[in-house]
Known about the structure:
This protein has 173 residues and is an alpha/beta fold. The protein is built from 3 helices and 6 strands, in the order H-E-E-H-E-E-E-E-H.
Amino acid sequence: MISMSKSNPLSFASVLLISLMLLFSGCYSFRDVSIPPEVKTVRIQYFENKARLFNPVLSPLLTDKLRQKVISQTRLTQVQGEDADYDIAGTITDCSVSTTGISNQQAASNRLNITVQIEFKNRLDESKNFEASVTRNFDFSASLTLDQAQLQLQDEIIRNLSDEIFNRIFSNW
């Protein structure tokens, strides 16, 4: 047993932190990125916005955030040419609003639904190619206009969508 006396250099906080790190290190990996060693390059194409409710900043912000995430969390080098080992493309296909809560016969809360169709090509192993839809929902007060809600939720929208896309491509779960 570790004594918490003044002569012991380990503080209670240190022991607790070390214990938590040991506990969680076997249960969960915070960076479960799976990339074969022969994969060196990636191209992330501009995510075009074809949604009927058009947000002009969504495409550039989402594309940039995903590129930043790949640079910071993988060892891959981004290239612009069609010879990249991994090629990632995407299209924002839906942006819609639905009512999620009613109070006194009026909308109290709404939900912004955004869907991105992603296409992943692995030029080194075509059996790993796939297409998938990623949909995220964001609740907001019905007292806000759609433009106000998108502005208020913008950081959360970009972060959540880029995380979801990244995880679909690079994680084992």
